[in-house]
Amino acid sequence: MAKLTFKTDKCKGCGLCVNVCPKKVLALATEKINKKGHHPVEAVNEAECIACAFCATMCPDCIIKVER
Amino acid sequence: MASKVLMKGNEAIAEAAIVAGCRHYFGYPITPQTEVAAYMAKKMPKIGGCFLQAESEIAAINMVYGVSSTGHRVMTSSSSPGISLKGEGLSYLAGADLPALVVNVQRGGPGLGGIQPSQSDYFQATKGAAHGDFHMLVLAPASVQEMADLTVKGFDLADKYRMTAMILADGTMGQMMEPVSLEYDIAPPPEKPWATTGTNMQREHNIVNSLYLAPEALERENFKRYERYKYIEENEAMYEEYMTDDAEIFVVAFGIAARVAKNAINDARNRGIKAGLIRPITLWPFPKAPFVKAESQAKAVISVELSMGQMIEDVKLALDCKVPVTLCNRSGGMIPSPEQVLKAIVDADNGGAK
Amino acid sequence: MVVFDKPHALSDLPMHYCPGCTHGIVHRLVAEVIDELEIEGKTIGIAPVGCSVMAYDYFNCDMIEAAHGRAPAVATGVKRALPENIVFTYQGDGDLASIGMAETVHSAARNENITVIFINNAIYGMTGGQMAPTTLPGQVTQTSPYGRDVNHCGYPIKVCEMLSTLDGPEYLERVAVNNVKNVKNAKKAIKKAFQNQVEGKGFSLVEVISSCPTNWGLTPQKALEWVDEKMIPYYPLGVYKDRSAKEAEK
Known about the structure:
A: Alpha-Beta Plaits, about 15% helix, B: Rossmann fold, five-stranded mixed beta sheet
């Protein structure tokens, strides 16, 4: 069971993590806005996560922690 | 008595720097200061130091910036056109509060100018080396001994106030040979807790930087720096007075011009003219104290310069324009003769006819 | 078990880069390498002028902010004074390949034992998208509004190819950070560039083909695709020089 933790307030909503996820686990929030004014990333399907850390690899702001 | 050796001015600077603990020198060849580099190239490898010929004066001053960031004593030297190239680095050193010793053995300008002695970088050194609000300590030697003494002093002042000390010499001072003593009691440099030497995982990281995007912060830094400059102006001005006790004609001159002026003053005294000399040793801070006497005693003041008249502005400011000041000068690499200065003194004594 | 987390050498400060800018990825890779080699305590980084000017806030090691293009000269000074420390510069294309070209070439020629991380995104980002020395032929920027006309302002500079003609440098590699595979390769190259310094091998430069979504006028994802379509064909990835490897072959 993989676990994803986000530093949500540092997210700039670039979506690179969303696009790279092979299991479609991530999505940008549609309603929620963070302190920076961005729609931050959220895990919408965490159960599918395989902890490949592709998302964290492509995240320019180092906001994702991946555990297994 | 201390033993003396016969040395060129440029070599005296280099050896004094080594005595002062400088182990890093970066430079680029330019006449008439290249002997500093040549001396360092010979000596540094033998004492565990580093001489490196940089690809440009710009690179050299930035290598200085790098070494200074680590807290080590470091220097570069050049001549007028090369100092213009170093301007960028001088501003960054000031902005990052880094100590350094920079030598300018001046030659005639503007442009490529010539290779003969000059003092026409006075404005550049004392007022406008580069962009931004800042000063450098500017030391003007008038003998080979002072080339050495002021180099040692320059390192001390640079470390003490975390700023650049510039030796503002000229081609004559660089090239002339005189006996010089190089025995000094060298005080250990101050602690430099700000230096970037690696955190060793023992402290927060140090940052050497001159960028302040918030104008409030930049202004605060500048005001802080100018507080320090004010203290320096009040405490570090250096000058020599020669026969000024009863003088009525005051000659003001530094470096080689002061030596010429002394001869002219002796000649004037032989003619019964009460002439005297104020020789600023620090050009920044410009010594104001001796001008109090000049203001009350002088019939006239003469600024003798190897330029089109640059220090004369500081002389007028120091006198509050209360005494007439005239310029006795040569430019482009020419040096005023004692006769020229004597004539200026005689003319001034006769009521100001030029 | 933690699979992925922020490296220690990277500070907690939010980075000022635009959304999707790959500067952040390269910062992280550098920090990961510093962690893995356990050199944070003796590393001194030199930040450039350009978008990454404030890199001094983002690394937890000691940092120096250099004048535009002068980072290799500053690094030379630091390394000569502290030869046991690890010194790296982090520079963009304007900084390294335009205003600082002399410092770049000569530090490479001297084989200064430093590590240079060179971000090539073919544009000046900080000043708002002007033509860089690496801007592609035909590429539209603020100062090449009709596309870079090579007859008027010349051709882009291929830094790794150019430096590889020198005898001096130890190691030159061009990598990209536009997909997971390339990021992993970039990390390997950066690690080697630091490892070389630890081993005293000399000047090691990693050119990282990066994206600038804002000034390219593309979304972050499209910008990564543009790297594949336009940048990599002009700037082929690979090792341009590896002296030690070559000598080992002999």
